[in-house]
Automatic annotation (TrEMBL):
Lineage: Bacteria, Pseudomonadati, Bacteroidota, Cytophagia, Cytophagales
Molecular-function GO term, any one: phosphorelay sensor kinase activity
Keyword Calcium: no
PROSITE patterns assigned: HIS_KIN
Protein name per the record: histidine kinase
Domain of life: Bacteria
Keywords from the named record: Kinase, Membrane, Phosphoprotein, Transferase, Transmembrane, Transmembrane helix, Two-component regulatory system
Transmembrane segments: 7-27, 33-59
One matching Pfam family: HATPase_c
Keyword Cytoplasm: no
EC number of the protein: 2.7.13.3
């Protein structure tokens, strides 16, 4: 700043002292030493008072605002501090407006950095997930083209393996589209009465063969013929339960138990899917609903799946005005739960 509080105080106090001295000269019979005494007293007093007023009401605040502009110009917004509530009201308001603007910009910058990081990670994950089935199917097809198609014994085996990888690729693309539409808000939930008991036992029937392969018991805390109705999108909640129960079976050790419970909470019903599987380490619990995030990548790839199941579950549950919760102890099992509104007949 070209003019600070001290310089301006000197100018103003000099003017005041000159005015006082000029006024004093109009009075008769004033000794010469009195002129000097009045001049120094008025100058000194004026300088001290004006300097204090200017420093604390204006210049201190103006320096703070100037420093804020320097930080904004240098894109260093992390050290910005809110106003300390001293200074002239107009300058305080300006300071607060600039701070609010800079703080908002800092939040936007951090969000953009985070989104850029997620985008890079997402592109890397998608590329990797797409590459695996494409490379496998491509290998089988080229092997057939190179002459294996004439080998009747291996021809069908290679074709089946190529078809299996292409089916997995189609499943991955469909899941990606589902997640994309849900995040964009393009999918609307069609709420209707849904009988949870009927739906859960239907899923049990569908997965019975897979569960029997590893001697896993499927249980529910209600009978098949009970009626527990909730207000939900039947197709989407079916998808949620299939994902959760499938994961519970996949990650349970041989001879384990997968139990689905429906608990009455008054206006809502809580659905709990519990297993006695390998569990999830605490450091992974906050990230398991991210797209393509896998706790044990080697085991997850051996078991199969697109890595998008829990992400889809999270979006569907949130679209039902609820949240998905998880509790897990490594070596003992995991428990996923969410709530749905009860269906009340009109």
């Amino acid at each position: 700043m070209l003019l600070n509080s001290r310089g301006l105080s000197l100018i103003l106090s000099g003017c005041i002292a000159a005015i006082v001295l000029g006024s004093l000269m109009l009075l008769p019979d004033i000794p010469n030493y009195a002129y000097w005494l009045v001049f120094f007293i008025s100058f000194g007093t004026g300088y001290i008072l004006i300097n204090i007023v200017l420093e604390f009401l204006f210049f201190k605040e103006l320096r703070s605002i100037y420093n804020m502009f320097e930080q904004i110009r240098a894109n260093d917004l992390s050290q910005l501090e809110p106003n300390k509530k001293y200074g002239h009201s107009s300058i305080i308001q300006i300071h607060e407006e600039i701070y609010a603007y800079a703080h908002g910009k800092q939040s936007e910058i951090e969000e953009l950095k985070q989104l850029a990081k997620f985008r890079r990670q997402f592109l890397a994950d998608v590329s990797h997930e797409l590459k695996t089935p494409i490379f496998a199917a491509q290998g089988f097809v080229h092997t057939l083209l190179d002459g294996a198609i004439d080998d009747k014994k291996n021809r069908m085996k290679f074709l089946k393996r190529a078809a299996k990888n292409l089916d997995g690729l189609d499943m991955l693309v469909q899941d990606l589209l589902t997640v994309s539409h849900m995040e964009a808000g393009d999918i609307t939930m069609h709420l209707e009465p849904v009988n949870l008991c009927e739906m859960i036992f239907e899923i049990f029937d569908q997965m019975e063969n897979n569960a029997q392969k590893t001697d896993i018991t499927l249980k529910m805390n209600h009978e098949r013929d009970e009626i527990i109705k909730v207000k939900a999108d039947e197709q989407r909640i079916y998808q949620v339960l299939v994902n959760l129960i499938t994961n519970a079976i996949k990650y349970s050790d041989e001879g384990g138990v997968v139990e689905v419970s429906v608990v009455d909470l008054g206006e809502r019903q809580q659905v709990i899917v519990k297993d006695t599987g390998i569990g999830i380490p605490p450091e992974h619990l906050n990230r398991i609903f991210e797209r393509f995030y896998r706790v044990d990548k080697s085991r997850a790839r051996a078991i199969g799946g697109t890595g998008l199941g829990l992400s889809i579950v999270k979006h569907i549950v949130e679209a039902h005005d609820s949240d998905i919760h998880v509790k897990s102890t490594p070596g003992e099992g995991s428990e996923f739960s969410f709530e749905l509104d009860k269906y009340i007949a009109q």
